[in-house]
Design brief:
The structure holds two protein chains of two kinds.
Chain A lengths: L1 H27 L6 H9 L12 H10 L12 H12 L9 E5 L20 H4 L18 H5 L5 E4 L2 E4 L9 H5 L5 E5 L4 E3 L7 H7 L9 H5 L5 E4 L2 E4 L9 H5 L5 E3 L1
Antiparallel strand pairs in A: 1-4, 2-3, 5-8, 6-7
Chain B lengths: L1 H13 L12 H6 L4 H33 L5 H23 L1 H7 L3 H4 L3 H16 L7 H30 L10 H16 L4 H5 L4
The chains are: A alpha+beta, B mainly alpha.
């Protein structure tokens, strides 16, 4: 009888003691909760994609409430989310451009070919380690779908050997940009503008042999651009979306048809 | 003799009596948090911290309260209670006074509240204290054992995080993808630790 009473008293006593210490500690050492950050977290889409550059949605919400981050970095949330957050913070939202991912390659199986048969792991990052990748062009899309696997919105797919972005579904979270081992995907503003669809930096003659849609560095686009938005660097044209006014001259002039509109 | 036995206890806790790979305690975080190296290290540091702290509190309670009163059978209930309360307290203190450490350990602390590896370390050390005859098993030995167990956990986690990193780009048969191959590789990793059997006794003879 005595030991039972002792046992009960001991467990209850220690339990009470711990409870007491914890409740005192939580009052004495209370950390003021950041209500703003919690509200912002609710407004964010919760995809934890990291497009804002912070560690997930909660990291971005914390930085916002402390004034360390800009409103409108959340690409998946878009304008609606930016408005809601600026409402919580009491600042003006500013205009938020809708952005989209583009693949700078049109090397589908009709235009180019593989240089070898590849039976290894179906992943671009694995294939690129073997002899510089399986495609004839050492800059272009290998079509094994690392971007497709990385996309949380089902917006990028490999069609006929080359990755294609579905602009309606794309939220510009840049997961595919990071997944691509050849770095041929980038995020551009979704507006009327030209997009370079080739990343090949080989000399014109070499490119011509590899791919029928490859940039040969002829500079017709650069000469014809009234806004100075197209520059040929290392035998490959680059369109600066900030300068491009969407006139379409380069799209018409390109003999290889490797500049297109978005 | 004291130093020698302390080193022996420390090495044994890491290698021959590794809590994850030899005693199969704490498998849940071992499989759950070992996908990336930095989360694996963060979790292990938190576990080590709690193991040492829990042993520091539970060992005297057992030796000076439970044993004299003859109610040793209460250890499981009491230890869970104490460890859970302790972890909560540590979390509150860290949040207030060491925010950077809280940022890195914070998410793992609630996970360890009733982790079986932590409970195992505090309870198995008592068995050992009763059965060891070669030297006096003291409070210091118990603490060193807890530290070793935590570092053993870290070693296992880091090793396994490396193995899983390799698995990610491996060509795995469809039926084995995910948890099956993880369990198979965990078994192989544990098998490798069997090779350490007896190494501490031979290195540091205590008898």
């Amino acid at each position: 009888m005595n030991t039972i009473v002792l046992a009960i008293c001991l467990v209850a006593g220690i339990g009470l003691l711990i409870g007491l210490i914890l409740s005192v500690a939580s009052i004495v050492m209370a950390v003021p909760k950041d209500e703003k950050a919690e509200k912002i977290l609710e407004a964010l889409p919760g995809a934890n994609c990291g497009a804002c550059g912070f560690s997930g949605c909660s990291g971005y919400a914390d930085a916002l409430s402390k004034g360390k981050a800009e409103v409108g970095l959340c690409a998946p949330g878009g304008e609606g989310c930016a408005k809601e957050i600026s409402g919580i913070l009491g600042v003006s939202a500013g205009s938020m451009e809708k952005k989209v991912a583009v693949v700078h390659c049109m090397g589908s199986l009709d235009n180019t070919s593989y240089k070898a048969e590849y039976n290894g792991v179906r992943s671009c990052s694995a294939a690129v380690k073997i002899g510089g990748g399986l495609t004839a062009c050492s800059f272009g899309c290998m079509g094994l779908g690392d971007c497709e696997a990385a996309c949380p919105y089902d917006a990028i797919h490999v069609c006929n050997g080359v990755a294609v972005v579905d602009a309606d579904k794309c939220k510009a979270c840049s997961m595919c940009v990071r997944a691509c081992p050849r770095k041929i995907i980038s995020i551009v503003p979704l507006k009327e503008s030209a997009v370079m669809r080739c990343s090949n930096k080989d000399k014109g003659g070499v490119t011509r042999k590899l791919c029928t849609a490859g940039c040969i560095g002829c500079k017709k686009c650069e000469k014809g651009c009234p806004a100075g938005a197209v520059k040929v660097i290392d035998f490959c044209a680059v369109v600066d979306p900030a300068l491009c006014n969407g006139c379409g001259n380069c799209v018409e002039n390109c003999p290889q048809h490797c500049i297109t509109e978005i | 003799m004291l130093v020698k036995s302390l080193v022996a206890v420390f090495l044994a806790a890491i290698l021959t009596e590794n809590y994850v790979l030899c005693k199969f305690l704490g498998i849940c975080p071992f499989l759950g948090v070992s996908k990336k190296l930095n989360t694996a290290v963060g979790m292990s540091v938190a576990v080590t911290f709690v193991m040492v702290l829990a042993t520091a509190v539970t060992y005297p309670i057992y030796m000076y309260i439970l044993v004299p009163s003859g109610i040793e059978y209460l250890q499981t209930v009491l230890f869970i209670l104490i460890i859970a309360g302790l972890v909560q307290l540590v979390e509150i203190i860290l949040k207030k006074y060491m925010p950077p450490l809280y940022q890195s350990l914070g998410i793992y602390l609630p996970l360890i509240t009733t982790n079986c590896a932590v409970l195992g370390v505090t309870m198995l050390v008592l068995q050992k204290a009763d059965s060891t005859t070669a030297y006096d098993y003291t409070y210091l030995h118990a603490l060193v054992n807890a530290l070793g167990a935590g570092i053993g956990f870290l070693v296992a986690m880091v090793m396994f995080a490396g193995v899983r990193g390799r698995l990610e780009s491996a060509d795995i048969p469809k039926s084995l993808k995910g948890l099956p191959i993880t369990l198979v590789s965990a078994a192989l990793t544990s098998l490798s630790f069997l090779g350490f059997a007896g190494v501490v006794d031979k290195l540091i003879p205590l008898a």
